[in-house]
Amino acid sequence: MSDEQLLDVFKSFCAFGAGSKDSQPLMDNAKFGKLFRDLKLYDKKFTSTDTDIIFNRPEVKSKTERKIGIAGFKKALELCAEKKYGSKGDVQKLIDKICAGKGPVAVGATKQSKTGGVDRMTDTSMYTGSHKERFDESGKGKGLEGRKDHDANASEGYVGGYKGKDTYDKTH
């Protein structure tokens, strides 16, 4: 695989989550780990702890820097290949796997619902009380007729089930 493909993968992971693309891409430790996680390069022998340690080695970046450029990235890949495969000469095998993979993946992002919310809201079998009277059997709304209270006592100010209508003594 060419250096150009590796640079494209490097730039895509550098730009992931950033507001705008910088003129010179730089990668931080979190995005370096994300690259290995998204491309499924971790195993029992090579873990995320190893990438954290390699990223902070003095050969990759100085103590004052927080991010690495493409040169530090290539050096880090050499060290990762040595840890994963046992030899720095196997760096091309690691680069081939990185270039063959996809770009960064948004894990845990909210997915769009396949069903419309309207179906759920107009399903009268889920409604209880007076709300189920608002829709007919087909789910079509009844409009004002569905919202009217048809209780005879309600228009006179009495609660349904009240037995003492017109028994109050008006002299009090």
From TrEMBL:
Q: Where is the composition biased (Basic and acidic residues)?
A: 130-153, 163-172
Record region (Disordered): 110-172
GO terms under cellular component: microtubule
Q: Fetch the Pfam families from UniProt.
A: p25-alpha
Single GO molecular function: tubulin binding
Q: Write out the GO biological process terms.
A: microtubule bundle formation; microtubule polymerization; positive regulation of protein polymerization
The entry assigns this protein to a family as follows: Belongs to the TPPP family.
Name of the protein in question? Tubulin polymerization-promoting protein family member 2
Q: What organism is recorded for this protein?
A: Acropora cervicornis (Staghorn coral)
